Q: What sequence folds into this?
């Protein structure tokens, strides 16, 4: 695993409980509702880099969906086992997902792509395009501006990387998606750029 990935994985392994305790301050219920309303009944969803499974995986399970939750932090997955025991939990790097094409009706990636080196974002979006079924839905959050670097986060070193929103949106659309909405959302004292898109296979 490369150095940047290790910084993120080790960081979340150390801060998992503290991060989870504050996860409720990020309120994205409205965006989740819009995503859920576009899914078929009994949909199969992947929550990519799911963290402790709250609130996204938990909310999706409550909505009656089958959830496959992926993270590469062992500490986060241990918490997820308690929070979302009904989910299929997989320890895996989100940039190397091993799913077959057309595996999911929907995919979420909240507060996670921001930790992936931005030069890999396009290939990441392409992989999401491949594992989603035709017309499958994707809800993701990205950084609000162009920046890359490390900083102190809950007492550990953490790495972030993102393009400006215009570049991110172009990459999403060029990866085979049609945008439903894209917008800035301020929540928990932070601003993020959210995209809801439909897979156009």
A:
């Amino acid at each position: 695993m490369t150095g940047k990935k290790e910084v993120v994985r080790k960081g979340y392994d150390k801060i998992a409980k503290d991060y989870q305790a504050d996860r409720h301050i990020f309120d994205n219920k409205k965006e989740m509702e819009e995503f859920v309303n576009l899914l078929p009944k009994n949909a199969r969803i992947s929550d990519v880099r799911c963290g402790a499974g709250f609130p996204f995986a938990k909310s999706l399970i409550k909505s009656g969906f089958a959830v496959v939750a992926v993270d590469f932090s062992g500490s986060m997955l241990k918490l997820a086992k308690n929070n979302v025991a009904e989910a299929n939990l997989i320890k895996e790097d989100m940039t190397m997902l091993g799913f077959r094409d057309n595996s999911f009706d929907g995919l979420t990636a909240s507060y996670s792509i921001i930790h992936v080196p931005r030069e890999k974002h396009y290939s990441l979006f392409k992989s999401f395009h491949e594992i989603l079924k035709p017309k499958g839905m994707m809800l993701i959050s990205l950084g609000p501006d162009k920046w890359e670097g490390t900083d102190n986060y809950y007492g550990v070193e953490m790495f972030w990387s993102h393009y400006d929103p215009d570049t991110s949106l172009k990459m999403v659309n060029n990866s085979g998606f049609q945008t439903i909405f894209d917008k800035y959302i301020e929540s928990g004292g932070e601003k993020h750029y959210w995209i809801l898109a439909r897979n156009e296979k």
